[in-house]
Amino acid sequence: IFILFTTVCNAQKKISNAKLRNPFITQMYTADPSAHVWADGRLYIYASHDIAPPQGCDLMDRYHVFSTDDMENWKDHGEILNSSQVPWGRKEGGFMWAPDCAYKNGTYYFYFPHPSGTEWNATWKIGVATSKNPASGFEVKGYIDGLKPMIDPCVFVDDDGQAYFYYGGGGTCEAGKLKDNMMEIDGEMIKMEGLTDFHEASWIHKKDGIYYLSYSDNHDDNMKDGVSGDNRMRYATSKSPLGPWKSEGIYMDPTDSYTNHGSIVKYKGQWYSFYHNSSLSNHDWLRSICVDKLYYNADGTIKKVVPTTG
Ligand code: FUB
């Protein structure tokens, strides 16, 4: 027991001394990082992929997965899915936006928003691909039936094994229970009440029995590339995964990018905030994923994340 305790302490000490490098992926443009720690002890990032030359988000057509065991060295597991592999997807491809991944009963479920028709904005579906591995072998199984054309899926599996599905857009965030097959909604989707200025990018984490729903807001303080926006990251708390929510304010100010989209996860004893910025390209639609440490106040509220570079 002593040896095990010492080994765990050493791993945590190593991680808390890790030199975070931002952006931490530089060989390609990446956005919308969804972070998960799986049973093999590694931290995995499911990200979307911005494509040069920048043309907004329409060219985003594939996903890569990255992982680490020390927050310093990142492995690129390569492409796990692209739009040509989506049988029900729009024939023009593209628009593979912010994804998420969940694990249940030996299977990894990869959730991705993708339009099913040429009128992309009105035809979003949330696709599901599955694999026995966290970073390879994903096959598209279909999509979640009965949803609105909204984006940015997030799947949270609670301590009792019940999975919840969240997504949003157009100022609305909705959520509901998932059946055990992780591909069907169990009952009704309900609007998440109490979120101030919700835009998109919902993410759930749980700490000390409290659920935290984080998201990007509609903050709009600049005009870059002819479009407006510079989203802040906000969060709300609840004693239930489906709310109602109490808005707690902003945990991250705008980056240099038009959008922001983040996830919050604990790894080896330290909480982290993942997000994206445009520091590598200086262009809104060529984004790069970043990570910084996240800290809580004694009352459970989140301290503002301080973005670092270099
Ligand atoms: O990356 C494409 C879209 O931009 C995402 O789905 C949104 O959350 C925003 O980051």
UniProtKB/TrEMBL annotation:
<dbReference type="InterPro" id="IPR023296">
    <property type="entry name" value="Glyco_hydro_beta-prop_sf"/>
</dbReference>
<dbReference type="Pfam" id="PF04616">
    <property type="entry name" value="Glyco_hydro_43"/>
</dbReference>
<dbReference type="InterPro" id="IPR006710">
    <property type="entry name" value="Glyco_hydro_43"/>
</dbReference>
<protein>
    <submittedName>
        <fullName>Glycosyl hydrolase family 43</fullName>
    </submittedName>
</protein>
<keyword id="KW-0119">Carbohydrate metabolism</keyword>
<dbReference type="GO" id="GO:0045493">
    <property type="term" value="P:xylan catabolic process"/>
</dbReference>
<keyword id="KW-0378">Hydrolase</keyword>
<feature type="site" description="Important for catalytic activity, responsible for pKa modulation of the active site Glu and correct orientation of both the proton donor and substrate">
    <location>
        <position position="152"/>
    </location>
</feature>
<dbReference type="InterPro" id="IPR052176">
    <property type="entry name" value="Glycosyl_Hydrlase_43_Enz"/>
</dbReference>
<keyword id="KW-0326">Glycosidase</keyword>
<keyword id="KW-0624">Polysaccharide degradation</keyword>
<comment type="similarity">
    <text>Belongs to the glycosyl hydrolase 43 family.</text>
</comment>
<dbReference type="GO" id="GO:0004553">
    <property type="term" value="F:hydrolase activity, hydrolyzing O-glycosyl compounds"/>
</dbReference>
<keyword id="KW-0858">Xylan degradation</keyword>
